[in-house]
Amino acid sequence: MTSAGGGGTLGEVGAAHRQVLAAQDLLRAAVDRARAEGRTWQEIGDVLGTTRQAAFQRFGRPVDPRTGAPMADGLLADAADRALAVLGDTAAARFERVRASFDEVMLGAVGVEELASVWAMVIGTAGAFERFGEPVVHPAGDLSVVDVLMEFEAGHAMAQVAFRRDGSVAGLHIRPS
Fold first, then answer.
1. Global pTM?
2. Can you tell me the distance from the alpha carbon of 124 to that of 145, in angstroms, rounded to the nearest whole number?
């Protein structure tokens, strides 16, 4: 077995991951320069093959009108990974594990049976789960919200997971298309 830092296929995975991170840094810097020269979110979205809203949500840095402070600074750093973990547990029907990530309000409002019922409705509408799309993280007040396209054998659904600053789940929505 090869270690994570060694050669072979895991070494290739590590090298590819470093390239992706470097490319993401280059992309963010390019978007920042485009915005600084007056390019619109629509223009940037067109180049990226997405909507202006998706481009803004991914790269924008909104300012809180109450404080003047950048709102993105309050985003939960690992929100995308946390959302994929919650949704992965949902797809694997590990509903107790999903609930373990809930805040107090969600714990009081949503039980294992409700989670199982919603997941059964999604599966009944779209078929077996296949894969996730790229998570998009954006602020919504004091929450970090992650939108994730979920692809199924016969359709797709949009999932949204909202996190509090402590990492607990404040909202979970899955809407089949």
1. 0.63
2. 26
